[in-house]
Automatic annotation (TrEMBL):
The lineage of its organism: Eukaryota, Fungi, Fungi incertae sedis, Mucoromycota, Mucoromycotina. One of its GO terms (molecular function) is phospholipase activity. One of its GO terms (biological process) is phospholipid metabolic process. This is Uncharacterized protein. Residues 1-21 form the signal peptide. Pfam families: Lipase_GDSL (PF00657). InterPro entries: GDSL, PLB1, SGNH_hydro_sf. It comes from the Eukaryota. The chain crosses the membrane at residues 130-153. Keywords: Membrane, Signal, Transmembrane, Transmembrane helix.
């Protein structure tokens, strides 16, 4: 009797929470969460407990190329004169008003969250704001404008910058506020797999070690933090797709015919790239699993799949700048799928998310937690 009453109450509760749960296309249509005292335990973490977001990554995270390209301007001029990094629109930490970004979704539920990147800028110069510090040796030293950006090896330097910036921000309680750090790196690594001066720095083994040490350092130097490891895209699939849509983008090659991705030059290179990309993903999963078996109350690592089957994507996902970086629609979609994955246990996350401009955003309810399992 008592048992069945409890069961009834439980199922009523489930019904209520299901009816509150909804999927919307604009975060503003989500019901607000009831205010509460932030969790003391990462097992009980809600999105509105997050007070700081940071990101480590490469040109994708920096929002390179989001707004596409004006075909009337030669690429070499555009790269010097145009603002090519739209950090404020980056799926990860962009904070431009109304942009579809993970930062903005958290901000909707927690108005005091800090750490957004805003606006746009020339590619390859580091910003004073928290968020990311892009190592831009390519763009600065070699003037390698298409692929600004970092490889996993650079995470350590980015992280030092992130930590010191977080510590220096006045309204942040570095010890006690909850933080989320999004990490996505690998595009430049896999492209470098065929470059003789690079290949030994970008093997899956090395990649895994660099990412692992960054996560280790986060654990030992940043209190109360959730690390969101986002898998890298298997870019080897892109070139075939974009080659059949050559009208869509302008600048797959620079004046010398270089695509900026040494592995894209021939089928062997593309295979190498695919192999490395798979290897990176494997390493990220290993890192996620390592921290699953080593949990604490104030630190967790979650992992987001992006095993994209690009051949099934529409070109709209890509920037018209280079058919390599994601477009604004691409970033908006990425923000939604990674956000939605935050509430699901690993076993229920979609393995091959399919690009969809009508993708919805999950509205968390009071009983939803960031799922760290
Ligand atoms: C929201 O979308 C997810 C993923 O498509 C789906 O599993 C879930 O049932 C949807 N929830 C509601 C309340 O529509």
């Amino acid at each position: 009797m008592v048992k069945s009453i409890i069961l009834n109450v439980l199922s009523l509760f489930t019904l209520v929470s299901i009816s509150l749960a909804k999927n919307v296309t604009d975060i503003k249509d989500c019901p607000a969460l009831s205010r509460r005292t932030p969790s003391v335990n990462i097992n009980d973490l809600r999105v509105d407990d997050i007070k700081i977001i940071g990101a480590l990554g490469d040109s994708v995270t920096a929002g390179f190329g989001i707004m596409g390209f004006d075909r009337t301007v030669p690429l070499s001029i555009a790269s010097q004169k145009s603002k090519l990094e739209y950090r404020g629109l980056s799926y990860s930490i962009g904070g431009d008003r109304g942009a579809g970004t993970m930062y903005n979704y958290i901000n909707y539920f927690q108005p005091e969250v800090f750490g957004a990147s805003v606006g746009s800028r020339l590619a390859g110069i580091c910003t004073g704001k928290i968020a990311i510090y892009i190592y831009s040796f390519y763009s600065l030293l070699l003037f390698f404008y298409i692929f600004t950006g970092a490889i996993a090896m650079n995470l350590d330097g980015e992280l030092d910058y992130l930590i010191s910036t977080m510590k220096s921000i006045k309204h942040i309680d570095f010890e006690d506020d909850w933080k989320m750090i999004n990490i996505q790196v690998g595009s430049n690594d896999m492209c470098g797999a065929c470059n003789t001066s690079y290949m030994d720095k970008v093997t899956p083994e090395k990649y895994g070690n660099y990412v692992d040490s960054a996560v280790d350092k986060i654990q030992s130097s940043i209190p109360k933090v959730i690390v969101n490891l986002i898998s890298s895209f298997d870019l080897s699939q892109l070139f075939e797709l974009t080659a059949t849509n050559s009208q869509y983008c302008v600048a797959r090659k620079d004046e010398t015919g270089d695509t900026g991705c040494s592995c894209a030059a021939n089928p062997e290179g593309l295979n190498k790239m695919k192999e490395f990309s798979k290897g990176y993903d494997q390493k990220l999963l290993e890192i996620y699993k390592k921290y699953q078996s080593n949990k604490s109350n104030s630190f967790a690592v979650v992992y987001q799949h992006c095993n994209f089957e690009f051949s099934k994507f529409s070109m709209e996902f890509f920037s018209t700048l280079d058919c390599f970086h994601p477009s604004l629609k691409g970033h908006t979609w990425l923000s939604k799928i990674f956000w939605n994955q935050l509430f699901l246990p690993q076993s229920q996350k979609p393995i091959h998310p399919l690009f969809n401009t009508e993708e919805t955003i999950y509205c968390p309810t009071d009983s939803d937690r960031i799922n760290i399992n």
